[in-house]
Design a protein that fits this description.
Layout: H1 17-20, E1 29-30, H2 43-57, H3 62-81, E2 88-91, H4 94-105, E3 110-114, H5 119-127, E4 132-135, H6 144-151, E5 157-163, E6 165-166, E7 171-172, H7 175-184, E8 188-192, H8 204-207, E9 211-214, E10 227-231, H9 233-237, H10 277-292, H11 294-311, E11 330-332, H12 338-347, E12 350-351, E13 353-355, E14 358-361, H13 369-383
Parallel strand pairs: 1-12, 3-4, 3-5, 5-8, 8-9
Antiparallel strand pairs: 2-10, 6-7, 9-10, 11-14, 13-14
The structure holds pyridoxal-5'-phosphate (PLP).
Length: 386
Amino acid sequence: VTGDSGLDDTGQGGPADDVARRFVRPAGTYLLSHSIGLSPSETAQHALEAHLGVWDHDPAGAWTHWLAEIEGFRSALAALLGHEAAWFCPQVNVSSGLTKVLQALRPSGSIVMTEEAFPSLGFVIGALGAHAVFVERDADVFDLDVWAERFDTADPVGAVLITHVHSNTGELLPVADIARLARERGILTIVDVAQSAGVIPIDLRAWDVDVVLGSCVKWLCGGPGAGWMWVRPDVCERSAPTDVGWFSHEDPFEFDIHSFRPASDASRFWGGTPSVLPFAIARRSIELIDAIGVRAIRAHNVALTSRLIDALHPDLVVNPTQADRRSATVVIDAGRQTDEVVDALVAAEVHVDRRPTGIRVSPHVYNAASDIDTVVRVIDGVLGTA
Ligand SMILES: Cc1ncc(COP(=O)(O)O)c(C=O)c1O
């Protein structure tokens, strides 16, 4: 773990106190960052100042401040993900962003996606009347031939939705390789980074995909309501959003009801009067994550997840163990004893959750090796030997 991140570099996998202290940590052992990332300690103060403060003290000028917060949100994402602020657009959540993208780009043909994708996105595709071609649960998502085969079905394929991280299986998908196969066939590439942004380094320029959808609730520690999309400039230019409003206009203050001209950047995907608070909050979280450094956060996460994987019997570990194939989450399946393990973890005040695939354990930058050791001790106590 790098020295300038402020993280511990002793190999013990413990964050320096000054990094962990920058987040509000609950009692017990919190390992649910795949669900809700902890809020930075300064969030409440920032929210008061950036949203309520300007509203109370300068209501006439509030929009100037509020829009500056949203610009700050776009810039923070741009810095984190390696592109320009203009091509990011605030959204409510990933599902709604996907609806807007598909309506605007109308890919002709089926949409390839994994069965492990977040169900909400499958609901969107169904509701829009599109046909989903699934990469089934038991298929090998790392085998590029599996993807090529789905792309080359008799059905023409118009788009692929690639989930960067499947949180229920702990898989980290090879986005760039899958996208290259799709691009060679003229297929629109859409990536969902809800489960990776903030913990897995992402370089948008290196990926060369068409659209990326994300939220800030999980590893970005930015709370709900601050969804976003990134659209590649040339894709943006040829897209015609249908869910629009005055903030999608090239000049929102022109106010000519007879003339809608879409903004030249990704703001064309925005809409009517935006909410401000979620973006003001998330902006500061993204800036904090970027300041700590996603590479350092990932290195810390790999140190802690390796510690857990190494301590467990291999049969218990559901996620891939290869570093470049596994996400930030360890998924543990104790078979018929899973209920018992969950009960013991709850009793020990270890905050994790459970999906049909197993128990999800997600260490972030505010977790320490001692948190992993607690999990191992509890599992050991139930199974006899971890
Ligand atoms: C991979 C993935 N995508 C998307 C979401 C959430 O989608 P939305 O922002 O529409 O609620 C989740 C939530 O758990 C997720 O794990």
